[in-house]
Amino acid sequence: MTRAELFAQIQQKSSFLSVGLDPDMAKIPAHLRSESDPIFSFCKAIIEETADYAVAYKPNIAFFEALGSKGWETLQKVQEFIPKDIFTIADAKRGDIGNTSTLYAKAFFETMDFDSITVAPYMGADSVTPFLEFREKWVILLALTSNVGSMDFQLIKDENGKPLYQSVLEKSQEWGSPENLMYVVGATRGELIGEVRKIVPDNFFLVPGVGAQGGSLADVAKYGMNAHCGLLVNSSRGIIYASGEKDFAKVARTEAVKLQAEMKVLLEKYL
Amino acid sequence: MTRAELFAQIQQKSSFLSVGLDPDMAKIPAHLRSESDPIFSFCKAIIEETADYAVAYKPNIAFFEALGSKGWETLQKVQEFIPKDIFTIADAKRGDIGNTSTLYAKAFFETMDFDSITVAPYMGADSVTPFLEFREKWVILLALTSNVGSMDFQLIKDENGKPLYQSVLEKSQEWGSPENLMYVVGATRGELIGEVRKIVPDNFFLVPGVGAQGGSLADVAKYGMNAHCGLLVNSSRGIIYASGEKDFAKVARTEAVKLQAEMKVLLEKYL
User: Which ipTM score applies to this complex?
Assistant: First the structure.
């Protein structure tokens, strides 16, 4: 998917919502557990009810991988079920030496047909650039994550006072463009999103940490939005586990509608 | 597997060889391609011929993942075929927020029964520690990798002149012990292995980059060996693709024997 197509969808739906698919057998409603593929049934129902309000779906690969080869079959079914005009994110946090990264890229871009994959930057250029060689596919590079551990290394300042995440942003600008490179930028640090935006004015950010993880959607939009919106704000648990009963998909829809309504206001304000 | 068990095996075999399993359909001998699971047949033959000389096997997960759910079935079969007294490394380079890392750990330590997994440090403590909570299982943390891109971030010096990889080594010492935490340390930088050894005297290193990637085994042993050997030196292509013909497994054995013979000399010299 191109940036123009993604932006068109954002405008059409007045939404920059990504719905995170973290399907946990212990958390999905009990009545689904007797189905032949409960995880697929769960994701399918969530997608059907939220697709009008979401511009992206982000399956968390670990939740599928934990189920072994069966989980990979389910992941493939889920990917194929997502409407083709909606952006898909394989949240896999991969990254290895060149020929190995190429294989990960093939796994998610060819064996499956995801639009994008999250990638870890620690191993540098040759671990990231193989993912950027696929046409109309995207890298979403970890820059500033929203977890507590992000402070361990990402905020370490170099000899010139520049934190590591800024080096990741700057260096990676040589590898990709706003047409194929996004960044993971956590929402738990409202003001830092503004700092990141100054360094990379044009790239999209994937923002986790709104809702269950405590970030403010208004702050994210205030500090992070650009002329192409430039934001995909993800909510996982706040939507998919809003109800653990038979009404889970309808309640997920209600939560998605609420977020979309907030996003519509923010798009009108800042775009 | 415990560190004592691993060390006992090293002494018994006079070897610290890890054989990397990077099975690529385009590179395996043509006569295997008509089999029902060529990748498994290939790995099985390699393991049968090299098991007397190797103390570890390191399947590169990307090569299996690129084949989708079928690849995961093959990976599981390969893991189960490796003799139980040999250390197994899932070279997966995973790492995510806490509950997600726990799921990756379950995928490799419970759904499958690997002894260890390679983990990327960028997201910090809560991305790594979930893997350390599994009894007799190991994290092999990326510290100083052997690829060109390792220079992009791993060598950035902080305000006190300390490179990032040293911060990773020092910080992670708070998370695990030499009984459950190893480090990836590239062999292309002989003298740097000595620097790493000073910081973490007791932990095992997984050393890629010997052979095809150009590092010197003698230098690795000189700078890196400790009283428990403390080294697993990996060779992938140099062994498994030494011949592309019907004799591939026998030739792999010959290459493994050569490396083991060199290692025996080095163990006698330094241990």
Answer: 0.96
